[in-house]
Amino acid sequence: MRRVGRVALMVVAWVLALVLALFTFVIVSRAIPWPLILVNSLLNSQGLYLIPAGLLTAGLAAYLYRDGARRTGAVAGAIAVITTIAACVPVVAVWRAADRYGASLSLGAYLDGGDNTGKPVEPASVVYNEVDGQQLKLDVKLPAGEAAAPRAAVVWVHGGGWNVGDRGEAPLWHKWLNERGYAVFAIDYRLAPPPRWDQAPGDVKCAVGWVKAHAGEYKVDPARVMLAGGSAGGNLSLMGAYSDDRVKPSCAVTDTSVRAVAVFYPPVDNAQVWEESGFPQVRTWAQNYNGGKPDQVPDRYRAGSPITYVRPGLPPTLLMHGKRDHIVPYDQSPELDAALTRAGVPHKLVSIPYAEHIFDFAWGAWGTQICRHVLGEFLREHFPA
User: Fold this and answer.
1) Could you list the residue range(s) of the whole structural domain that residue 262 is in?
2) pLDDT values of the chain reduced to their tens digit, one per residue, 385 residues
3) Residues 282 and 376 in one domain
4) Domain for residue 112, yes or no?
């Protein structure tokens, strides 16, 4: 019986060692194969737990070594020690980033976690446009209590590679904004396929114009509207904020201007994302959205890229991007950052060490905590409630 127990512990030690080795590989590798993107995302949201897991495995390895299973104990122990040390690297990096941005990190918030995904809130849903026989909806989310004065409004655009997703995404950001006095209008838009490169940005502009036209109904100040979103929603938010008369709203509205724009991990140069993304599905999504590859329809990729429209006078912009993003490469945001600098547009780039794409879906993660702080500062400076 004792032998059976020792064999079971050896199996557990080997399994733990393999898992820890996988996480160590992800930590130390600059680029990883796309099947390990999920592991990198877990590192973002649960990486702190690698330290106690490494210590636990080291203790088990020491016990097995003393009990005669020396090879298992030695190998598992070595991996455990290496992983425990490696796991401290991203923690130190993100805490240094927090210090750089003036953010205070909370261990309690990290441990509490929270899943920043959701579904549309049908009782709050309103049709803002009907086009091509399709009803486009938005969810109206207002702060609690009566408004003493017209509120500022945030039009939130969901992600999903222009092919999937809905207005239910990022509900904790909506709630966070509501708690600070902002009205939130979380929108849907037409998804690919068929190609939507010239339609989805127009839907975003239509939604902004609709909010302004219905401002009195929701006690919103039509002069204080901003755009926000992540991934494809970040791309479309920038398109709604930056694009000129070449991009028309998909409904009969007049004013589609915004006062500010805040985005997470946005595709900025769509052809470059097609070339450099580490996730194969991105190419399929981009081809569905544009109706072909970049060398087949280069004008469409260019027309749907926010960097095409950079010029002086654009609204203040906040860019937030994980430096280990394998879906929309991190270099996209520094590229836009440099272009905005040359154009003299007020902006800020926030770089989150070791963070993967959609890192803010983990509400308690260090990177999300940093972004809550920085977005709060950006709002106070450029778009107060």
Assistant:
1) 122-382
2) 556 667 888 899 999 999 999 999 999 998 899 999 999 999 989 999 999 999 999 999 998 889 888 999 999 999 999 999 999 999 999 999 999 999 999 999 999 989 999 999 999 999 999 998 999 999 999 999 888 899 999 999 999 999 999 999 999 999 999 999 999 999 999 999 999 999 999 999 999 999 999 999 999 999 999 999 999 999 999 999 999 999 999 999 999 999 999 999 999 999 999 999 999 999 999 999 999 999 999 999 999 999 999 999 999 999 999 999 999 999 999 999 999 999 999 999 999 999 999 999 999 999 999 999 999 999 999 999 8
3) yes
4) no
What 3-state DSSP class applies to 352?
strand
Q: Are residues 173 and 47 in the same domain?
A: no
Distance in angstroms (rounded) separating the CA atoms of residues 256 and 235: 16
How many structural domains are present in the chain?
2
Residues 126 and 257 occupy one common structural domain: yes
Which residues, 6+ apart, have CB-to-CB distance to 53 below 8 Å?
A: 16, 19, 20, 83
Does residue 110 form part of some domain? Answer: no
The answer on 143 and 10 residing in a single domain is no
Sorted by sequence, the CB contacts under 8 Å of residue 160 that are 6+ apart come out as 166, 169, 191, 231, 232, 233
Closest C-alpha among 185, 316, 297 to residue 242: 316
Region of 321 (left: φ > 0; alpha: ψ -120 to 50; beta: rest) is beta
| Residue at 168 is within a domain | yes
CATH label of the domain that carries residue 174: 3.40.50.1820
Using the 3D structure, point to which of 101, 130, 148 is the last residue of a domain.
101
pTM: 0.95
Distances (CA, A) of 211 to 139, 148, 182, 280: 11, 19, 13, 36
Query: In terms of domains, do 351 and 229 share one?
Result: yes
User: Residue 100, Cβ neighbours under 10 Å: how many?
Assistant: 11
User: Are 97 and 148 part of one and the same domain?
Assistant: no
Query: Which residue in the block uniquely carries the two structure tokens 């070594």?
Result: 65
CA distance linking residue 110 with residue 116, whole number of Å: 13
Same domain, 77 and 201: no
Determine how β-strand 347-352 pairs with β-strand 260-264: unpaired
In a domain, 306, yes or no: yes
Transcribe 54-104 into DSSP letters: HHHHHHHHHHHHHTT-HHHHHHHHHHHHHHHHHHHHHHHHHHHHHHHHTPP
Kindly report the number of other CB atoms within 10 A of residue 360's CB atom: 26
